[in-house]
């Protein structure tokens, strides 16, 4: 019997040296360094690991069975990907951005196409942050071209 996603995630976060507290209903919480971003919350509903960056954005890491077209993703692989993402966020490798209403996204400036896909469109009025709380200047070096 495999361990739960919550147990696996807690173990891997501890192994990575990332401090967290257990919350209600099998959630994990990493305290915010910057109030304008909010805590990182990790939940495990629906058989997946969901990582929330405050109320700004979230990412899903979903295990799935292999088939003719895809090799599949085990619980362990989904947790490993989620913990890698969390580790990179707290190491300021991901830029978090939001519109004036607080909704937004995140992207990895030097990441692959999937990691960079959630960058705001050029010319959009957004605020940029790193997990450490440093505000990233708004300039075209952070903007990526994507389909509108």
Task: Please describe what this structure looks like.
Helices cover 21% and strands 22% of the residues. The protein contains three helices and eight strands; from the N terminus they run H-E-E-E-E-E-H-E-E-H-E. A five-stranded antiparallel beta sheet has the order 1-2-3-4-5. It has a three-stranded antiparallel beta sheet with strand order 7-6-8, with no helix packed on it. The longest helix is centred in the middle third of the chain and has 16 residues, at 75-90. Mean pLDDT is 87; it is low at 140-148.
Briefly characterize the structure:
With 148 residues, the protein is α+β, with helices and mostly antiparallel strands.
Question: Which secondary structure elements does this structure contain, and how are they paired or packed?
Answer:
Blueprint: H1 5-15, E1 21-23, E2 27-30, E3 40-43, E4 49-53, E5 57-61, H2 75-90, E6 95-98, E7 104-107, H3 113-116, E8 127-129
Antiparallel strand pairs: 1-2, 2-3, 3-4, 4-5, 6-7, 6-8
Quaternary structure of the protein: single chain
Could you tell me how far the N terminus lies from the C terminus, measured between alpha carbons in angstroms?
Answer: 45 Å
**Main sheet overview:** 5 strands, antiparallel
Number-wise, the strands total 8
Element-level helix/strand string: HEEEEEHEEHE
Nearest-integer average pLDDT: 87
Number of helices: 3
| Strands ordered across the widest β-sheet | 1-2-3-4-5
| Residue windows where pLDDT falls under 50 for at least 5 positions | 140-148
- Helix-strand makeup class: alpha+beta
Shape: globular
Rounded to the nearest angstrom, the radius of gyration is: 16 Å
Percent of residues in beta strands? 15-25%
Helix content: 10-25%
């Amino acid at each position: 019997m495999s361990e739960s996603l919550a147990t696996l995630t807690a173990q891997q976060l501890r192994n990575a040296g990332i401090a967290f507290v257990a919350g209600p209903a099998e959630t994990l919480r990493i305290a915010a360094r910057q109030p304008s971003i909010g805590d990182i919350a990790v939940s495990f509903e629906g058989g997946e690991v969901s990582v929330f960056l405050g109320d700004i954005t979230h990412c899903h890491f979903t295990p799935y069975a292999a088939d003719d077209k895809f090799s599949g993703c085990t619980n362990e692989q989904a947790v490993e990907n989620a913990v890698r993402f969390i580790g990179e966020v707290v190491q300021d490798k991901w830029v978090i951005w939001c519109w004036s209403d607080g909704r937004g996204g995140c992207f990895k400036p030097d990441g692959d196409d999937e990691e960079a896909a959630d960058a705001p469109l050029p010319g959009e009025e957004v605020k940029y942050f790193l997990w450490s709380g440093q505000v990233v200047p708004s300039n075209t070096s952070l903007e990526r071209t994507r389909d509108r």
